[in-house]
Amino acid sequence: MDVEIRTAEQEDEAAVTAFTEHPRVHAEFVTWLDEGISLVADSDDAGVVGYVHLHVYPSDEAWIDVLAVAEEERRRGVGFRLVDAAVEEADDRGVDVVRCMGMAEDSTVEGFADSVGFDVAAELHLARGFGFPYGSQFEEAQFDASLETIRDTGVYGRVNGLYADAEGRFRGLPTSVDGFDDARILGFSDDGEVRGAVVFSGRGVNRDAPENRSEMVCGFVWCEEDYASQMALDVRGEARDRNLQDAAVWIPVDLVPSFDQAGFDVGGKRYVYQRRV
């Protein structure tokens, strides 16, 4: 079987949506044709059997939103060729690093990521909790000073300087406010010292819920150890203050107990993989 990797076209939508149930592919296939990089694997005897889409940021970073291969064509190198071609095109567009995510317990994903040259960049958990009227001590933080504080924390090093945007794509924390889109930094202080800060990435949608629930997305969380419980409760209170139903927070492993005790549903560990171009 000969397979050609080529740019996706609108006429490929039916074939692609036939072998993947990914909701964003079904909702945004046509829109994505003009946003980022969309490629298909087109075989001479079976038609379109694979698809990949990358979101490209102005900051020379890219994120693999979807990689899908028809079940009967898996383990034949189609996924490898799709990723390799997408990374090559990203390189042509000036991208410096490509990232994706997978569950840490999934050995298949880990093995595939390694085979296409991706290394683990960060280990995180996704915690979700409904907004609750505790109130919040968060205040809008002075951006550049807060970024300087964050960069000096151990968490910053453990997550490789990454934060999640409102769509759950990870990118590098910018060096100044100019590098953010709609994100802001919220923090709280005690005795005149900053004790915790979160990157509020914006309003997202919990597509895993039976109904699409609005959520406050926090893409980076840091706090001093003694303030972990306050941080967890403040995040839930802040979501309610902003009239959002839930809070979705990407947290390092050391904050899992505090967020669990605060009523968050903490998911399994996830790896952010990356490949330098």
* CATH fold call of the largest domain: Aminopeptidase
Strand content: 35-45%
CATH C-level label of the largest domain: Alpha Beta
Task: Give start-end ranges of low-pLDDT stretches.
Answer: none
Ends distance: 29 Å
Global mean pLDDT? 91
Structural class: alpha+beta
Q: Tell me the number of helical segments per DSSP (H or I, 4 or more residues long).
A: 8
| C-alpha Rg (nearest Å) | 20 Å
Give a quick set of tags describing it.
Aminopeptidase; 277 residues; alpha+beta; elongated; 2 domains; single chain; two-stranded antiparallel ribbon; 8 helices; twelve-stranded mixed beta sheet
Written description of the protein model:
The chain has 277 residues and is α+β, with helices and mostly antiparallel strands. The protein folds into 2 domains: 3-95, Aminopeptidase (3-Layer(aba) Sandwich), CATH 3.40.630; 123-276, Aminopeptidase, CATH 3.40.630.30. The protein contains 8 helices and 14 strands. The protein has helices at 13-19, 23-32, 78-92, 107-115, 143-151, 154-158, 228-241, 256-261; strands spanning 3-7, 37-43, 47-56, 61-69, 97-103, 119-130, 139-140, 162-164, 170-172, 184-190, 193-206, 213-223, 246-251, 265-276. A 12-stranded mixed beta sheet has the order 1-2-3-4-5-14-6-13-12-11-10-7, with helices on both faces. The chain has a two-stranded antiparallel sheet with strand order 8-9. The radius of gyration is 20 Å and the shape is elongated. The mean pLDDT is 91.
